[in-house]
Amino acid sequence: MTSRERWTVYPLLFLALGLAMRAIVVPVGEFDAARVGSLESTRLVCKEIVIENDDGTILVHMGRVVKGGGGRIEIKDKDGVDTIAVGTRPDERDGVVEFFDAAGVSQGQLSAPAAEP
Q: What is the pTM of this model?
């Protein structure tokens, strides 16, 4: 085998071996869960995002509102009690900023003024 032939054959051999190993090492399909150190993306499409404390307490929840509402971002304190929420409510279509007391009970909200008839 000449040097020129080696420079052609060996890279192709390693490419073929690499492609064959990739199919074994990186399975194709959907995963229920994945653990990564960091994620960089231009666009992320998902149904909800949950940020948890080290002990599993939910601190921030971004997602859909149940019963056909729109989207909502809920920010909680270190104990997981609601402090503020931005988005829609299940029974309303209008956007709202909602404030909660220390017990997590809604104390007020800011929304657009009601339309006059």
A: 0.60
